[in-house]
Amino acid sequence: MENKLLIAIVAGLVYTIGQWRLGNGVFPIVRRPLTMAFICGLLMGNMQDAMIMGCYLTLAFLGIVVVGGNLPSDVGLASAVAIPVALATGQSPEMALVIATPFSVIGVFIDQLRRIINGFWVTACDKHAEELDHKGIARCVWLYTFLTNFVLRFPTAFALVYFGTDAVDFILNNLPAWVTNGFSVAGGVLPAFGFALTLIVIGKKSLYPFFFIGFFATKLMGLSTIYVAAFAIPFVIAVTLKDMEKEKLLLNKFKLTTTLNEPEDE
């Protein structure tokens, strides 16, 4: 019971901190599935299965892009709930992915509510700015937004993990075999869908050969994705250095052209 309570508290804190959106540094990393998987693996003593689930969720949500501030799915809540619940109930990575899907949608509604509430703090900031109240502005920007984020997110993740384990275990144990098999198939398709979205987002045909090389290496040669990633690092460095050199040449050419076109002083 104590371990279950601890995991629920940690899940709530990770989800809350990861979604605070204070800057673009550590916080986006905290809400990623692999971070939650690593923490759950340590707390629950099953690092291997936890990291596999984290990889599955990462692949499934890999192509999700936030356009214009619009959150299409909440990977933070999905991973904070699905990974500990799936580990506690002994589910497969595919089932963890299926469990995560509805919670990613629920997280979107929570985020919309957060935006509405934060609108009031923006109005309060304007009032404090007119009064030159720097402390009031700081409270609105830092304290009130964090409290809003905490009140909306921590209880949600905590309750879903603490009470959801028994509910998920009961539902899955009483589902017909054809339903669970369908969930497993759907869970296997979602990572491929995430890859497809990523390729569309990248949109560079020059990168497609590297993708297919990695795919054939894992499927035909039987290499693990870790080995493929290790061999891919030198290629990434080489391509990056080549692009940087090309950009440097273009920049020097632009500077030279600009210098030649400058009018001479009379």
Summarize the entry for a quick read.
The protein is built from ten helices and no strands. The protein has 266 residues and is mostly helical.
Task: Describe the protein's topology.
Layout: H1 2-18, H2 26-30, H3 33-44, H4 47-60, H5 75-89, H6 93-130, H7 134-173, H8 177-202, H9 208-219, H10 225-261
Helix pairs in contact: 1-3, 1-5, 1-7, 3-4, 3-5, 4-5, 4-6, 4-8, 5-6, 5-7, 6-7, 6-8, 9-10
Key descriptive features of the protein:
266 residues, mainly alpha, 0% strand, flat
What does this structure look like?
It is a single chain. This protein has 266 residues and is mainly alpha-helical. Helices cover 81% and strands 0% of the residues. It is built from ten helices and no strands. The chain has helices at 2-18, 26-30, 33-44, 47-60, 75-89, 93-130, 134-173, 177-202, 208-219, 225-261. α5 packs antiparallel against α6. The chain is flat, with a radius of gyration of 24 Å. The N and C termini lie far apart (86 Å).
